[in-house]
Every structure is written in C-alpha cells, then in structure tokens.
Write a structure and sequence with these properties.
heterodimer, A: alpha/beta, Amidase signature (AS) enzymes, 11 strands, 38% helix, globular, B: mainly alpha, Histone, subunit A, two-stranded antiparallel sheet, 3 helices, 2 strands, 35% helix
Amino acid sequence: MSDLTGLSLRELRDKVAGREVSAEEVTRAHLDRLDRVEPILDAFLHVLPERALERARRLDASLARGAAAPPLAGVPAAVKDVLVMEGIPTTCGSRILEGYRPPYTATAVARLEAAGAILLGKTNMDEFAMGSSTENSAFKPTRNPWDTERVPGGSSGGSAAAVAARVAPLALGSDTGGSIRQPAALCGVVGLKPTYGRVSRHGLVAFASSLDQVGPFTRTVEDAALASRALFGADPLDATGATVPVPDFTESLDGGLAGLRVGVPWDFLAEGLDDGVAERFRQALHALEAGGARLVSLALPHSRHAIATYYLVATAEASSNLARFDGVRHGLREDGSGDLRTMYGKTRDRGFGPEVKRRIILGTFALSSGYYDAYYLRAQRVRALVRRDFEQAFGSCDVVATPTTPTPAFRLGEKVDDPLQMYLADVFTVPASLAGIPGLSIPCGLVSGLPVGLQLLGRPFDEATLFRTGHAFQLATDHHLAAPPLP
Amino acid sequence: MTRVTPEAVEHVARLARLSLTPEERDTFARQLEQVLVYAGSLEALDTSGVEPMGHASASEPLRDDVPAQGLRRETVLEAAPDAADGLFRVPRVLGG
C-alpha cells in the first residue's frame, strides 16, 4: 500500500489541487493497488486503466494551465456495474447483458467525472442488485477484504470491497433495501443511502423504482459529504428526482453533538442481534453520549414487518422492470427456431440467474389476479405504516440509531440455499428504504476481526445531520482508520 | 395460508415469460411458499383506512412538453442482437 492509497478523498483532492502530486501519479498508485489486491478480492468486472490515465493526464494539463481545481480533482473512484457508461460494458452482474455497451452515461457517473473524479472501473454486484452477499453475480463472487472466506455483503459488494482495500477512496453503489449500507458495514467503510429522490437515477438500471437510490462509499464521513455535494441535485432526465436545494455539507460538518437527540428503537433490535454487534452498538451510543448527544428510547412497531413488506413490493416492481430484458433491444438473445414467445422464454431462462428468477416469480405472483389485494396492496398499506412510525419518531429525536446489520460478515455459501435467511441480513436497513429516508452506515469497531456498522437514519433530505453526527463520531473514535489485513 | 404448487409456479412463470426446468419449478414452489408463509405476518395487521404507499417521492414535478433530441436510431440499434433496415428484428410473432 503506497502512501497515496492510504489517503482520504479530501487529502488526495487537496494534494492534486495544490499540485503537490499529479492526478496521474494518484491514478497509477491506485491502479497498482487494484492489480495487487484484485486477484484476492474479485471486486471488479471491468477495469479502465488507459481511460483513467488519459483523463488524469488531461486534468493535470488543465491544472498546469491554471484552471481552477474541481471539487473532486484527481479522486480515483469505482462505479457499481448497475450504472451505465457510454461505450463501456455494463452487465449488472448478469449474463443477459453480457456484451452490452450502453449508448449513454448515467447522470451520477457524469457528475463525478465533471467534478474531476477519475473512474477506475466497474465493480461486481449481485445480479440486478438482488442479493446481500455479491454471490449472485453471474461472473464471480467478491471476497471480504477482512476475511476472504467471507462475503463482502451486497448487492454493492465490489464497491464496498474496493474502498475497504484502498483501491479507491470513493465508489458508487445503489441501495434498494440496504445494498449500500449493508456491504459498507460488512467491509468496514462508510456508506450512504441518500433520501429517495436526492440523486438522479438516469442511467441506473432499475430494480425497484419506488426504492432505488444511488449513493457513495468512502472511508470517512467527511468524504461522503464531499462526494454527496457533487452527486446530489435535480436532473431534467429524472422525473422522480427531488428539487430540494443541496446544501454545502462541509459548512455544518463540525457542528458537534451537543443537544442532538439520538433515538434508539430497542424493541426492534431485540430479535436476532449478535452479542458482539450489540456490544459495539452500545459502545457507539456511549461515544455519541460522551460527545453531548442525548439518547431517547422510541418505538418503530411496524418495522418488524418491513422485510415481508419489502419482498412483496420490491419483487413486484422488479418483475415489471425486468420485463425489458427480452432479447430484442440489447444483450443476450437465445434464438432457436421458434417464434417470438419461445425466444423470450429461452433468452430469459438462460440469461437470468436463480435469485432473479425467484424474485420475478414472487413479484409476478404478488401482482397476479386473485393475490394482488392480499399481497401487493396490503404490503403498500403496511409500507405507509412503517413510514408513519418514522414520522412520529422524528418528533422526539433528530436521528435514529441502529446497528446496520444483525451479524458481521457471513461465510461464502452459508446462505445461498436459504433465500429467507439471506433476506433477513437486511432486517435493519429495509425500514428506511420503505420510508424513503436517508441512512448512513459508519464503521463502529470489530467483532472477532470483522467490521460492524452503526446505522444513522435521518429525516427526509436531512443528510446534513447524519454527516454532522457521523463526523463527530469519527473525530471521537478511530474505527474508520482500521485497515483490512491485505498484502 | 397460501399453498404454492409447482403448477402455480408454472403458470406465473408463463406470465413472466420464463421457461423453467422441472427442477427449478419444484425448488421455487418450495422457496416461494416459505417466503409467503413469512409474509403472512402482514395479515394480522389492521390496515383499514390506510392509504397504500406507492412511492416516497416528495413531489412529482411536471415539465413542459418540449421536443428534444434523443439518442440516434443507429446508436440504439447497435446494441441490439439483431437489427435490419433501421428496425429491431425478431422471430415470427404469430404461429404459422
């Protein structure tokens, strides 16, 4: 690990902006790091060394001419393979998109590049973002940098592993039920799911449209705030995007914890929580208290129904969104000599993996005649109750704190044959997804050498309070400085 | 409680344009039943008078209907498995 790869996003940006080091040197150092750890981790599906170095040289030339340094100048970044980049393979971890080169670029990716970030490659993921371990990738599983016999979490496992392994200080992921926060916790990095509508989804391949959000992985909360400033904001190409103004998060970052009310839903946390995770969570709460925050007990009575609700709502939306993969407009076609309908069936059978098929079938079932009211509509009503609980909770607190996951990283293969157990890995992240509120996962220590995450949830569009709280936590603790045992 | 038979999975798979092997069909029937039994906990909740929540958007802004240049047809067709004469080409649509 060179000195450069150990630096944070802000440190690297300041060095490049101050011309202490060139963007090309920074890029080379991170590409070297990638070459070194990639054979161990399998975090990437596609690496872009030539393109990255080319862009870095171009940035250096522009800085040499005296141009102002953009806010993410020379910051190496990785992108989950669910976001399209023009002319660069995008698979979503699926055979059905093998060979597909999209004709346009996702807004989130374009904004990072416009802010001066240097994109190193596309990261591995559970197929179509469906999974909690990255084992559902059609191409390869990614390994946890802290223990390569364990999963990195998912579905954005490649992005989380890349940031943990110091391949990049920044990566993009997508979070539908926990796919940024859960792998961030399991890999010991910071992960933010912004408020629904905060980040443009133009160019994000859709899984469940009422839930999907793009967000950053970093190692510090300050870096997440800097990346969010570049990512957030309305986009004419996304009609579901929010027009709420984006503050300069760095201004409120040092606001401290005095008077902050932290709500803890103890009842919801009672079931299935690992003892070691519970201990780290309690220590994290003490650290917040020591900084001047006040703990408040609260109830989220419907959150225990969140997983059931989520798997009806998300699969129903997925069954509709994934109808577009039919062998006609892009990717794989399984021909045969049959008619159109036979081609659809064969293409989709060969192109989709088991988890995607399982969810398409569950979602189609929940939407089908005779079951729509009992499953889909009922789930949408319970979703409203989950959100109402949060609205009430935020009457008595400013942030809600939970562990991000009930256990540290599990072993590869441990849950692949038991879908329900895999779904329960997201038990603490799904409620905020249903409510559409922002969630931040921050490393809060190790259990038997494996990272554990503290999850902070905020009011809609109040990421600033999450950043302020998380930054204060990182100033008071050193969990985020721990590095995984890699060569 | 909802029973999920292999025939029900077969029916839903047909609706979703998926061709399943007999093994897939049987496995999915068993696993879907597990998930639906778990989801049965929702039945005990009183949801009367609760409006279904379709999404979490704060607003749904409308924009003016102004014509704009989209992607070029040739660019889009380049990604297709089969295209001819500026169109996507597909196998026979109606049985012959």
